[in-house]
Each structure stands twice: as C-alpha cells, then as structure tokens.
Write a structure and sequence with these properties.
- It is a single chain.
- With 103 residues, the chain is mainly alpha-helical.
- Helix content is 51%, strand content 0%.
- This is Reverse transcriptase domain-containing protein.
C-alpha cells in the first residue's frame, strides 16, 4: 500500500497490503493439500459431502447393482440409514449389528 513520496521507491510502500494476498494464497495451497489427502482416504463408495460426487452417483450404483444381481438371481438386501436422525448413537455398533444379522 502506497504511503507517500515516489511511488517507484519500494520503501514508500507498506508491506501489509501484500500480506493478505500472500496469506490467502498460502492458505489455499494448504487447504487444497488437506482436501486432496482427506479425499484420497475415503472409500470409493462414500460419496456424501465430496467433490465430484452426488446423490445421482449413488442412485446409479444401486440401480446397476440391483440389475446385475437380478440378472444372476442373487438376493439383495439394502439398508438406508438417516444418520442425522440417529446422530446420538454409535454408528460402529449399528454397523456391527447389521453385519452380524447378515447370515
């Protein structure tokens, strides 16, 4: 940010002006790295709250799975859990219970 005097003299500019731009650039680089690392750690079947994924991806996957299993006359059991409705329970316990019922 220009103070006074000759605007070509670097000493007449305040470095604070550029600080926010450098900070924003640095923060964006770090955020992109964190996002990429977290995204790579997700299972491919997990699409909620992820970039480049949508509910339609999940619907398509379930539709294809149903078609293939029907073609080969294999049973299919789908379970949908509204996690917001059950946000006070232990998800791992629910998954273990569902898994133990799968005989």
């Amino acid at each position: 940010m220009f103070k006074k005097g000759d605007n070509h003299d670097i000493g007449n500019n305040r470095p604070v002006f550029m600080l926010s731009a450098v900070y924003k650039l640095f923060a964006r680089v770090i955020l992109n790295k964190i996002d990429r690392t977290l995204d790579e750690g997700q299972q491919c079947k997990q699409a909620g709250l992820r970039k480049r994924f949508s509910t339609m991806d999940q619907i398509h996957m379930i539709t294809r799975l149903t078609e293939v299993l029907r073609k080969y006359k294999r049973p299919l059991c789908l379970t949908f859990i509204d996690l917001r409705a059950f946000d006070s329970i232990e998800i791992e316990a629910v998954m273990e219970t569902l898994d133990s019922e799968n005989t």
